[in-house]
Every structure is written in C-alpha cells, then in structure tokens.
Amino acid sequence: MKTYIFSSVILMLTLFSTANIQAQQIDNTKNNYVVLTKKVPQLQPIILTAESLKAEEGDAFGDFQVIICGKEIGEIIDADKINDFITKAEKAGVKIIACGFSLNKFKVDKTKVPKEIEVVENGILYNFQLQKIGYKSISL
Q1: Residue ranges per structural domain of the chain
Q2: Is 53 in contact with 27 (CB distance < 8 Å)?
Q3: What angle do CA 106, 49, 75 make, to 5 degrees?
Q4: Greatest CA separation found in the chain?
C-alpha cells in the first residue's frame, strides 16, 4: 500500500513539474524584441528598425514591442504627437506599451490613452519579464 501511495505521489509531481517546464520553454524559432524608451519622437527610428528587421528576418521575425516610460509619457495623449506613430506602428506590427507607473507618477489621465496603446502596471518590470522569456532588449 505504501508503495502504491508513494508511486502515485511521484507520478503526480512528475506530471505537474513537466507541465510547468513546458509552459516556460522559449520558442527559439522567432526573434522577439522589446525597446524601452523615454521619448515619443524616438518611436520613428524604433519603428524603422522593426520594419528593417522584419524584412531581413522574414519568418524568423516574431514580436516587437516598445515600452514608453518616464516624465514625457504625457505626450502619448497628445493626438498631434502620437497618432502618426500609432498608424506606423500598426503597419509595421509594432505594439506600443505605456508604463502605468509613469502615467500615475506624472498624473496622466489613463482614460485619455489611445485604445491602441496597452497600459502595463510597471514598464520596467514588464521589460524584464519579456527578457526572461527570451526577448532581445535595448533601452534608449
């Protein structure tokens, strides 16, 4: 009886451990990128870089995200400054992310953030989380 219980426990632990490992595996067939920036105008060269990498890598090109943090985050609610970048980013397959911590610190109304821009709680933490799963990262 002890052997049966012990074997059952070992089997259960093995199954749950294997499921967890599979969920954390990285897809090395795609190149994923994340850029952390403090200035909205830097979106122009970042998007151009994404377009070049996509053309160069073809099917190996994966996900490309840009996280905006810092004191100039308020520019993302200025339609004149952000709308052109949103359009270019969508065409290039670039996802724009806003740091919720920065939005709070610099008192930017989250309800005015364009719907195309995702807000994460902490942009720096989000960047590290992406790096942990294999994203190539640069900060500007």
Answers
A1: 27-139
A2: no
A3: 20
A4: 73
CB atoms within 10 A of CB 130: 20
Does 130 score more than 50 pLDDT?
A: yes
Classify domain 27-139 by CATH architecture: 3-Layer(aba) Sandwich (3.40)
The confidence score (pLDDT) of residue 20 equals 41
**pLDDT at 134 > cutoff 60:** yes
How deeply is 100 buried, as exposed, middle or buried, from its count of CB atoms within 10 A (0-12, 13-18, 19+)?
A: buried
> Which pLDDT score, from 0 to 100, does residue 138 have?
84
Determine the length of the chain.
Answer: 140
The whole-model pTM stands at 0.77
How far is C-alpha 74 from the geometric centre of its chain's CA atoms? 20
Q: Could you tell me which residue, 18 or 62, shows the higher pLDDT?
A: 62
Site of tokens 């806003």: 98
Helices (H), 25-139: 43-57, 79-92, 100-105, 123-132
